[in-house]
Design goal:
Length: 419
Amino acid sequence: MAVLKTSRDIGTFVKRTVERTPVIDIHTHLYPASFGKLLLWGIDELLTYHYLVAEVFRWTQMDFGRFWKMSKKAQAELVWRKLFLENSPVSESCRGPLTCLKMLGIDVKSRSLEKARAYFGKQTAAGYLDVVFEKANVKQVVMTNDPFDAGERVLWQKRVRRDKRFAAALRIDPILMTWPKAAAELRKWGYKAKAKVDASTVRETRRFLTDWVERIGPLYLAVSLPPEFTYPDRSTRSRMIRDVVLPVAHKAGIPFAMMIGVRKLVNPALQLAGDSVGAADGAVLETLCREFPDNRFLVTMLSRENQHQLCVSARKFRNLMPFGCWWFLNDPSLIEEITRMRTELLGLSFIPQHSDARVLDQLMYKWAHSRAIFAKVLTDKYRDLAATGWRVDSDDVERDVRNLFGGNFERFLAETPKQ
């Protein structure tokens, strides 16, 4: 243990500790190499990620349909030309791929897309996974696993080998968002579920979720919800949360993760890039935490306007864990603002970030960019402590960063909350 006596000592040690501490990425859309085409990686996937697709249409009048008919290679070349060559790539969406290339040792000064492609052409999925995990300093990621996705479902049923670095999360959006369609699927799979929810349907849907919990061993159940989400009301969604989701989660001993605030397909022509954001009623979380004290809730919210109330709610309910800066909040200025607010309201009892990565390479840039921000915020907070006369020890800093980068998540998974 060393006492960090000067402001410079604090800054240097915090930066080094943040960079060196491995992280658990608690929410991604990544898969192990054994899942085949579900794992996305490489420069063309980076450039055609929906963040950049939405941005490229700010610079072209091309018909949407024409774009979607183009090959992925041609789409990537259009994005590269419009966003990186004809305009300076200053947005966070553009900066990200450049950070990835730099971390891989690929020259970006030449502005050559073909040089990047040449590097990735020499990689294998399994080998490249090791490269990315090492450079991102990520020790584990949590997947998003949807039993209603036919391509993924068959892999789980075949018991495809899973890389231990990939933990599961059971995604249940169809049950809460499009129940009649989900009920029809359950009937095809041998579960006696009805469009109109009755006691039998509740039992069968619990059985379905329990079967999948046993099959994939998820760390949590998860759903993405619109800003209009409320509880309780007379909707099928409320009944499913009350009678199916929370009882199954409680019995399995796992949290229920809610990602709240997405407005789906406000521009359908943009496909996956067409979603937007809306402010939600944060009081719903307090209702759920109060009425279900034996359940744990992992929560991230998409709207900036919801962040303060989320922090205040977490101060009142220890079964509520705020996590990450999701989607449209994954920008440096907002990450810094939100992290400072959480630190000032919650101390270090939150999960500061998740990557939400859909392309493997994104682990590198999203964590590199976030780590720089966390180091800045933590340095300021430890300097504030030192100014009061409090001794800032190196061991304390290392402990705190370990908690933020995985310890808080592991602790929350293990807890049995009581109000």
